[in-house]
Amino acid sequence: MHPSIVEVAPRDGLQNEPGTVSTAAKIELIRRSADAGLRRIEASSFVSPKAVPQLADAEAVLSEVPRRPGISYAGLVFNERGLDRALAARVDEINVVVVSTDALSRRNQGCSTEEGIIRWTSLAARARAAGLWRTVTIAAAFGCPFEGEVPERRILELARRVAAAEPDEIALADTIGVGTPDRVRRLVAGVARIAPNALVRCHFHNTRNTGYVNAVAALEAGAHVLDASTGGIGGCPFAPAATGNIATEDLVYALDRMGIVTGLNLERLIRTGLWLGEVLGKPVPALLGRAGAFPGRDGLA
User: Which residues are catalytic?
Assistant: First the structure.
């Protein structure tokens, strides 16, 4: 099975920007991502506009995205009201976050970890009845900005508990970019054993320059899905210094060079990253737009 990449720039990327990007630009970002071959796109977040004003236009964005066969749009959902909005907006997937520590969970979602599990269980049942793909993300799976190290046994126990609601996918998120390949391998393998009926997905930040090697380690350990953000933009607004998702174009370059098929158009990804920098008014963190792909591959110079 070839790995799939979930494009998260429209949601996790833009939510951490200090300014608000226009609805039209968000729709154009999604269109460009689809044109580059991305088939799973996290389009927005159905949370309180007061909490994340950058994504207050979720319904407007979903009403105008290209609805093509094979393209699946996901929405981040925290509560029942959010799921109501997501269903009305015709998302294909929901992503529900359960944070591994109470300290970050209360800042990020206004509830404890235990309450987060209860919320996920309820949302998963409703989403399943509605025919949606269901992802549960364990946030701060590799460390918390407030509580420090998070024991691996705690993450695996959380995986066991959230797996009871029969998710299609369990994602491990390195919310503050502190993970290393050894721990990535152990947690990915552990989750796969605990929840054999769910795909293992990983979400890495490159905050401390380990995001790409962690992504490769995750695939080697059996992960099926990786999150990435065009341009490498994004982060968590509720965690200090949680900057920098791994960039879609940089990740795809590495995988292509390794002979791992992604089915994505690298040239279009690079162009989208450069365009996104123009929209944001600053250079994006991704390096492919500056360095270019290696000469002779896919016609790129």
Answer: 236
